[in-house]
Amino acid sequence: MFIYWIQLIVCLLSYINIIHAYKVGTGIADITGPCAQIMFMGYAELGQTGEGIRQRIWARAYIVADDQDDTKRIVFVNTETQSMGDIVKKRVIQSLQKQYGKSLYTEQNVMLSSTHSHSGPGGYLQQALYELSVLGWIEETTQPMVQGIVQAIARAHDSVQPGKLHLAVDELLDTNINRSGASYLMNPLEERKQYKYNVDKNMTVLGFHSSAGEPLGLISWFAVHGVSVNNTNRLINGDNKGYAAYVTDRKINPHGTLSGKGKFVAAFAQSNEGDVSPNTLGSFCTGTTISCDGSKNDKCPTGSSCNGRGPGWKTSDYESNRIIGQQQSDKALELYEKQENQLNGIIDSRSKLFDISKMVINGTKKLCRPAMGYAFAAGTTDGPALTTLGFYQNMTHGTLGWDIVKDILRTPTKEQTDCQQPKPILLDTGEITIPNPWQPTILEIQLFRLGDVFIASTPSELTTMSGRRLRRAIKSRLNSRGIQVQDVIYSGPANGYASYCATYEEYQKQRYEGASTPYGPHTLSAYIETFNELVDAMANGSPASSVPLPDYTNQAFNLSPPKIADFKPITHQFGDIVTDVVVKPNGYSSGQTVSASFVAGNPRNNLMLDKTYLTVERYMPSSTSTKTNTNADSSWVVIRTDNDWDTRFNWKRNQVLLGRSTAIIEWDVDDTVEAGTYRLGYFGHHQSILKKRVTAHHGYSTPFEVQ
Ligand SMILES: *[C@@H]1O[C@H](CO)[C@@H](O)[C@H](O)[C@H]1NC(C)=O
Ligand SMILES: *[C@@H]1O[C@H](CO)[C@@H](O)[C@H](O)[C@H]1NC(C)=O
Ligand SMILES: *[C@@H]1O[C@H](CO)[C@@H](O)[C@H](O)[C@H]1NC(C)=O
Ligand SMILES: *[C@@H]1O[C@H](CO)[C@@H](O)[C@H](O)[C@H]1NC(C)=O
Ligand SMILES: *[C@@H]1O[C@H](CO)[C@@H](O)[C@H](O)[C@H]1NC(C)=O
């Protein structure tokens, strides 16, 4: 009997040792900044300011803690942004430490990753080049972003419970394509031969379940630029990954709240997307069938530019966005449902802030102060920039006219020109410091460990081959330290923004991605070398050393339009109808759009975080639902908000009568809508000229029928 007990205890102990259980938590919060008058971050398209909301943008947070010692935890946050601000992370950590003490959440174990969407308001990056592209450092964008990220983490914190993690990988085809094939071909043939595709087609999904098997959430990683929605769009949305997250959340939480905020939280995170486009049909000169790649020899006829085409381009870029998003959602759920490869083992994390511009590789290969090449100004086939001004992709020489112009800004030193070879320097960002440094030199890299799965991040957009080399280098360093590796996932851009990172060979071509690799040809080698230190620190159980992060926000500028008082026509109140819905005798049917417009205030008066500027409401007199609007007749049930894909909140300022504005609410009726009586609602705020008081207002359309 005694022997039996000993055996049982030994058996139990070894079981505990092998299956290392986790505690997990998930949370989501709204980070939608000002949806009007502020420039979108990504395309650097002057005049591309917000005019409303197609979908809100969100932060989704995941906590994984060791079951035995739950102070050992990691926090992964996916934000629907173009990139992350180093100052955003600093403020998030400060706020978390105020709430939870100094040791539970630190820069070491919190990773803020970005989906690289190009359709959200800018102003959260502190370096002048990025500020210039959106006209400033904008607290109005940054503060709700910080608050929302902290709130998502707090919600994840409050939901921490015993749970399980699974990891699954599979190919997803027809959802991404190379956009700089000529650069990719510069990489050695031997290396290219190891891979089936010229972009990464693997999607990796980390699945979260409670210990009882209840679905809690997933994180998917797949490399594809967030540029399905093009640079003519003026409505905030999360691009293809935002759409993927929205449809996935809604599918699993059918009875969750209307914005998709149920218990299940799905994040679609970014990976090595530097040279990867969602425009899967390839690139063509607009209005023609001539294919092109944006280089000089591929010049498009006058009046036409080289643009990528998504799968739904004949309908609209939104249709392409929907398709690319839906495909990611479908694959992620397929992988999630497999529940294979249950993870177990140690939770660990390290981050390191280092000055990349001061590094020297192997004693001779110097990293450079940042600079951008000529092709940076050409943009890409996903958003051509100054192509009519003589910029094109793969420029290894400057042009006389622009050489004169750029030298007025700053003539690069000989040291800088040599260091950046063969890049012709257009913007010597590392040698201009007015009003503050133009690009960062202090960068943060980070490494998470969940058993034998690792998540690595940098603030750069890694090209396909850069990502592969980095993952391989991290894996081989871990192996050399006796650590088993199932997978190294690359997540980013994260924790800051440092433009692109092309391989040494791709850099020689100086297409857009190489021209936008700021620290010279050895940028990737510098990352790999610094990750080696991080792996060693993790293997040794020692801390990684860091340098302090500079904060220039007190010397920042903001040239975006100030918010002024709101005015209305004398005969109207705020919230009054301007143009009512057209009431059709037979009602609306699938494929038709209902719209109404209202006397509005500036949406910047109140961002309505976790709320909505619009509603679509259904008349249900017998309903006992609690989802009703509190300040209205409880027979009206909200069925759509401004976060829904089939609604649009458009805001227009009247250009002639300053301060007057209109909100236009639109709803696309489709065949999933039940027959019944509906109305549109608008919810806004106006600011009076005296005392700057902000007051709420709202209005409803006349009810209408859907057949
Ligand atoms: C990108 O890849 C596609 C499919 O593999 C190929 O047909 C195309 O030529 C490549 N594009 C460039 C610019 O090399
Ligand atoms: C894609 O995933 C498969 C299966 O895990 C793996 O063998 C392959 O190396 C991965 N490809 C890349 C490019 O990472
Ligand atoms: C950008 O999107 C708009 C709206 O879908 C479309 O009309 C326009 O043709 C697109 N531009 C290009 C270059 O594809
Ligand atoms: C530095 O030296 C190592 C070892 O010889 C080599 O593998 C690596 O490619 C070198 N890095 C660069 C940038 O030359
Ligand atoms: C640019 O690329 C094209 C084809 O991709 C090539 O023919 C041309 O020589 C390149 N130009 C330069 C300056 O590298």
Automatic annotation (TrEMBL):
Keywords: Hydrolase, Lipid metabolism, Metal-binding, Signal, Sphingolipid metabolism, Zinc. It comes from the Eukaryota. InterPro entries: Ceramidase_alk, NCDase_C_sf, NEUT/ALK_ceramidase_C, NEUT/ALK_ceramidase_N. The keyword Metal-binding applies. Binds 1 zinc ion per subunit. Its cofactor is Zn(2+). GO terms for cellular component: extracellular region; membrane. Residues 531-706 form the Neutral/alkaline non-lysosomal ceramidase C-terminal domain. Its EC number is 3.5.1.23. GO terms for molecular function: metal ion binding; N-acylsphingosine amidohydrolase activity. Belongs to the neutral ceramidase family. This is Neutral ceramidase. It comes from Absidia repens. The lineage of its organism: Eukaryota, Fungi, Fungi incertae sedis, Mucoromycota, Mucoromycotina.
